[in-house]
């Protein structure tokens, strides 16, 4: 039997190596986002090859597709706000695949810096939460750095109360400020005497709960499983439709699809009607806004940067026309990127 298995393994390896050669001949010198399997944006050919298969066959082929992709092109690290099993980690794994070269860093700013220094090809940062709104640290880094957006991913956020003790014994609850805020009502109702302790990440909170007596963490299920913590209560977020949108950072030029978004950062003169004029300009070019945020200009009173996301790709004629008109009136205009809308 062992000899038969060795022969089969040799055949599998030979086919995998042939797949690597085919991929390398397609894109030998650069990372191509459109080649990565389902976890990124599964190609039509790969969708066809797995249709009709059972779960084992689909999972096997997706793993092979990811592994051969990573072996055949120059696929650099993906920086994310760590540590492992943070929500940023989950978003990165969802977009790039769990076998990608995921590189944890300590802050959102460090994700940007890794790309600027060439230590990572891509980055994953939270940009908006459906409960708490914009992520200030991320928007601030777009103002400070020339890093671009080449994609986005939506991650449903389900917070869990993790501990090594019973709920009645919990004295302290650790988590990052946003997670505690998103579970405020549940914590007040079920743990009114427990002290809230803010830490850098939900994953760091889980590590504390695994070692500190009578401590609990608000974190992901994956973080709890990895550390052997009990799930004292599941999905304790106040908003059961809690979703965080993550921006994929990188210099990849993504071609148009039939459902794209374009992100802009701009500053217009501080005078009556200036922002309204921009809105009219976008409307007259048939552009629908999907998001707008204002951000104070440091050191100036009553002056703001504006972050705008609109439907369409920078290659579209109406987007190009709008950008040209806006560039003639704005103090600053940064095209942050065009990319497929996440679903």
Would you spell out the secondary-structure blueprint of this structure?
Layout: H1 2-26, H2 38-41, H3 44-50, H4 55-72, E1 78-81, H5 87-96, E2 102-105, H6 108-116, E3 122-129, E4 133-134, H7 136-144, E5 149-156, E6 160-163, E7 172-175, H8 177-182, H9 184-190, E8 195-198, H10 202-209, E9 215-219, H11 221-227, E10 230-233, E11 243-250, E12 260-267, H12 274-284, E13 289-296, E14 304-311, H13 317-327, E15 332-340
Parallel strand pairs: 1-2, 1-3, 7-8, 7-9
Antiparallel strand pairs: 3-4, 3-11, 5-11, 6-9, 6-10, 12-14, 12-15, 13-14
Distance between the termini: 47 Å
Largest sheet: 6 strands, mixed
CATH topology assignment of the largest domain: D-Maltodextrin-Binding Protein, domain 2
CATH architecture of the largest domain: 3-Layer(aba) Sandwich
Q: Tell me what portion of residues adopts beta-strand conformation.
A: 25-35%
Order of helices and strands: HHHHEHEHEEHEEEHHEHEHEEEHEEHE
Quaternary: single chain
Weakly predicted, low-confidence segments? 28-45
Helix content percent band: 25-40%
Number of strands: 15
How confident overall, as mean pLDDT?
87
Over all CA atoms, what is the radius of gyration?
23 Å
Q: What coarse outline follows from CA principal-axis ratios?
A: flat
CATH superfamily placement of the largest domain: Periplasmic binding protein-like II
